[in-house]
Amino acid sequence: MKRDQKRIRNKRIKTTLLVICTVFIVTLYAVFAQPLAYNMAIKIVHKITDIVKPGDNNSDSDDKDNISNNTENKDNGSKDNSNGGIFGNIEPSNPNNNAKWNISFTKVIKTEVRGSAKEISRVSYNDLSASFNVLLPKPSDSISYEFTISNKGTLDAKLDTISVTPENQETDAILYETSGVEVGDVLNAGESTTLIVTVSYNPKNEDIEPEGKAAKIYINYSQK
User: Fold this and answer.
1) At what angle do helices 2-32 and 61-82 cross, to 10 degrees?
2) Model confidence over 82-105: pLDDT tens digits?
């Protein structure tokens, strides 16, 4: 009698262990949404199920009922699995798991050259920064560039900053100014926008010798 009670108690403990492990693995799978977790779950559940199976026919009727219920639950679990059950089509915990961030300058053209303005070195760009080096021999000279900014990712973005290095000062002879896209503008996935950069003399400082000036422009986006 004591032996049978001990066997029943052990089987109930193992059944409880099966439930706990199953809940743990389901939680792990839901968080990470990885095939590895799925395979691990299947192996552990099968292994524990084999341990829980009765080794003989000496169990009492209550024990048989418990085993019968476990078998019934296993069958239901298999059916649920085929229809997106416990280990079926669980949605990733991160809805943006496949999101892609890709915003950059994709093209630059020289749109206007006034007077004797010329480049000391050709404009270059990388991702969201551009480098310039321009010579303006006369106060009326200027040169303009048009940059295409493309969002080739899957996330909408908002323009946070546009900065010029070194910053424009009132005493500078040559200024780098921007127009077109503005801070706060939204750039949706798959769309493009335009940034215009104009290099010209400072109207407050036109009585000076011909000058050249190098500068860099940076823009920064964040997810909308």
Assistant:
1) 20
2) 333 333 333 334 455 689 999 999
